[in-house]
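User: quick one, sequence for these tokens?
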């Protein structure tokens, strides 16, 4: 199949939104920009369309998808038995990078949720994503638009690297502003739990859910065969082909450590940069974790191009959006953490 490129400059924006919506209404697949990462969208009401998402990504059948809506009025039917707190959280954090897990509504076929009785729902803030949802008139099922296991794509170029020829179209927006996927919380447990950290931080969530807990799978390796709350957490994720390690320590210790390695590269902070003598990719400043979130996936994607045998990533703090960055990196490193 030939993957259509839909440009979003001032001249072709409306036409591209219309074309994307038509493909989606006809049961096709379209990669769309969102503020977090690009998503691979299809109609959440169409089992056959949803199947195409799993096929294009090579996604395990037991990993459920997120349903994207553009207006709060669409929540009813997508979910059922919606608690009042969900509306309070929606008011506070939607549109934006928060996904809520609720009871699955009658409209949504079981395959979207990989057979679970729950459904993940999010309202993106990216205006192109919202225009496409509105124009299609559909709730859109959309996982990240990468091949399963690879870092999520933060630009259309990375989507095409993985999925060119496997999907009907890609909407070419800019780089994603956040850079890591949405925060996923479940309201189907008491107390509610954070299953995947993102740009909406635990501190912010506590203003709506005072008793919310961070699920233990966020920072620890799942034990084989154990039941996990969020199926996506158990898979190998985000990993470069090159052996990758996450390294905790000060600039002095980190730079000294990587400089002592043969045939290694560093994914580092701008603060480290001047002292590093091996190949390196800087992914932002330790002073502001949102810069790290913005660059972490492109750094992981570019890392294999460095042609080294080992990659050492300087670990961010686990506060604010740093927790989300740490959560992705610990998976990219297959839970190999070096504490200096
Ligand atoms: O920012 C995002 O969330 C992006 C953009 C495109 O919206 N989407 C995204 O989707 O990251 P995906 O499929 O790559 O990640 C969804 C995560 C997976 O870990 C999945 O297991 C979990 O959410 N999930 C989805 N539905 C669930 C459910 N009903 N119960 C538990 N976990 C669920
Ligand atoms: Mg994903």
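Assistant:
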């Amino acid at each position: 199949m030939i993957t259509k490129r839909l440009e979003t400059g001032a001249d072709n924006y409306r036409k591209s939104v219309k074309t994307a919506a038509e493909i989606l209404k006809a049961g096709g697949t379209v990669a769309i920009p969102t503020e977090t990462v690009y998503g691979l969208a299809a109609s959440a009401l169409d089992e056959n369309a949803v199947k195409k998402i799993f096929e294009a990504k090579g996604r395990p059948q037991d990993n459920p998808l997120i349903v994207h809506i553009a207006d709060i009025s669409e929540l009813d039917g997508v979910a059922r038995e919606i608690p009042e707190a969900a509306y309070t959280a929606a008011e506070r954090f939607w549109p934006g990078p928060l996904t809520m897990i609720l009871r699955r509504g009658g409209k949504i076929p079981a395959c979207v949720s990989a057979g679970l009785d729950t459904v993940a729902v999010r309202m993106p803030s990216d205006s192109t994503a919202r225009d496409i949802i509105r124009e299609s008139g559909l709730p859109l099922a959309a996982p990240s638009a990468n091949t399963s296991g690879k870092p999520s794509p933060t630009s259309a170029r990375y989507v095409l690297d993985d999925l060119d020829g496997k999907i009907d179209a890609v909407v070419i927006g800019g780089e994603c502003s956040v850079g890591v996927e949405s925060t996923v919380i479940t309201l189907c447990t008491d107390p509610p739990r954070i299953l995947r950290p993102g740009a909406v931080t635990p501190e912010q969530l506590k203003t709506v859910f005072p008793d919310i807990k961070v699920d233990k799978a966020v920072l620890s390796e799942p034990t084989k065969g154990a039941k996990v709350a969020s199926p996506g957490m158990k898979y190998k994720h985000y990993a470069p082909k090159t052996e990758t390690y996450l390294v905790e320590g000060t600039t002095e210790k980190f730079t000294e450590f990587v400089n002592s390695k043969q045939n290694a590269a560093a994914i580092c902070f701008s603060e480290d940069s001047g002292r590093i003598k091996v190949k390196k990719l800087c992914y932002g400043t330790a002073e502001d974790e949102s810069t790290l979130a913005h660059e972490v996936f492109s750094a992981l994607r570019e890392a294999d191009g460095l042609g080294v045998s080992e990659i050492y990533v300087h670990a961010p703090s686990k506060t604010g959006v740093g927790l989300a960055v740490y959560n992705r990196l610990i998976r990219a490193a297959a839970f190999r953490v070096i504490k200096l």
